[in-house]
TrEMBL record:
InterPro entries: Aldolase_TIM, Ribul_P_3_epim, Ribul_P_3_epim-like, RibuloseP-bd_barrel. PROSITE patterns: RIBUL_P_3_EPIMER_1 (PS01085), RIBUL_P_3_EPIMER_2 (PS01086). CDD domains: RPE. The keyword Iron does not apply. This is Ribulose-phosphate 3-epimerase. Pfam families: Ribul_P_3_epim. Belongs to the ribulose-phosphate 3-epimerase family. GO terms for biological process: pentose catabolic process; pentose-phosphate shunt. Binds 1 divalent metal cation per subunit. The lineage of its organism: Bacteria, Pseudomonadati, Bacteroidota, Bacteroidia, Bacteroidales. Pathway: Carbohydrate degradation. It is an enzyme of class 5 (isomerase). The active site is at D33, D173. Keywords: Carbohydrate metabolism, Cobalt, Isomerase, Manganese, Metal-binding, Zinc.
Length: 214
């Protein structure tokens, strides 16, 4: 299992300390949430901060754009050194074009589904994707309860990926802990994003290793 700790739950008053932990941990990615107060009812961080994060982080950045019109910011995300750029299905009128532009910019293209968006909406784009991010909470805040139906969605997405011959990875974000993570692993998830479970743990490195072992 690949693990991407979500920076949203880190201590923004002392990011240096959290980066020391993350950099020496077995985490595979650093998940960075960008929120605009329009697509989701919260505002997080923007590009100057992500650039500073890039200088501190020794893990590849997985940037999750919870914003309207994410296509306007592809080059800025690339300039922040992101390896993966995730855009919401619900935020892109011309998803095929956006996915191609992300890839042309040299990043891996991820498409995110809100909890109420069915997996079959990706049928005609799945073969072009590097990753699908299933939101297992309504996006905007850390610390929410896992939505159980996400397990069905992950199983259905796994079947869609296998049937289409796609190489897309399945990432899941929201309410991930040891229990939900184990169920997600069984359902077919490849990457677990975890905020509170990692950063509120007495030993964040151990929490990361626990998720990795699932
Ligand atoms: O994108 C989001 C929330 O919108 C997530 O990345 C959260 O940061 C996950 O937090 P936990 O549910 O793991 O506490």
């Amino acid at each position: 299992m690949l693990v991407a700790p979500s920076l949203l739950s880190a201590n923004f008053a002392n990011l240096q300390a959290d980066f020391e932990i993350l950099n020496s941990s077995n985490a595979d990615y650093l998940h960075v949430d960008v929120m605009d107060g329009v697509f989701v009812p919260n505002i997080s961080i923007g590009f100057p901060v992500i650039k500073a994060i890039q200088r501190l982080a020794r893990k590849p950045l997985d940037v999750h754009m919870m914003i309207v019109e994410p296509q306007k910011y592809i080059s800025q995300v690339r300039d922040c050194g992101a390896e993966i750029m995730n855009v919401h299905f619900e935020a892109c009128t011309h998803l095929n074009r956006v996915v191609h532009e992300i890839k042309e910019a040299g990043m891996k293209a991820g498409v995110t589904l809100n909890p109420a968006t069915p997996v079959f909406m990706l049928e005609d784009i799945i073969s072009e994707l590097d990753l699908v991010l299933i939101m297992s909470v309504n996006p905007g805040f850390g610390g929410q309860a896992f939505i159980e139906n996400s397990l069905n969605k992950v199983s259905r997405l796994r079947r869609l990926i296998e049937a289409s011959g796609s190489h897309a990875l399945i990432e899941v974000d929201g309410g991930v802990n040891e229990m939900t993570g184990a169920a997600l692993s069984k359902a077919g998830a490849d990457i677990l994003v975890a905020g509170s479970y990692v950063f509120k743990a007495p030993d964040p490195m151990k929490a990361i290793d626990t998720l990795k072992s699932l």
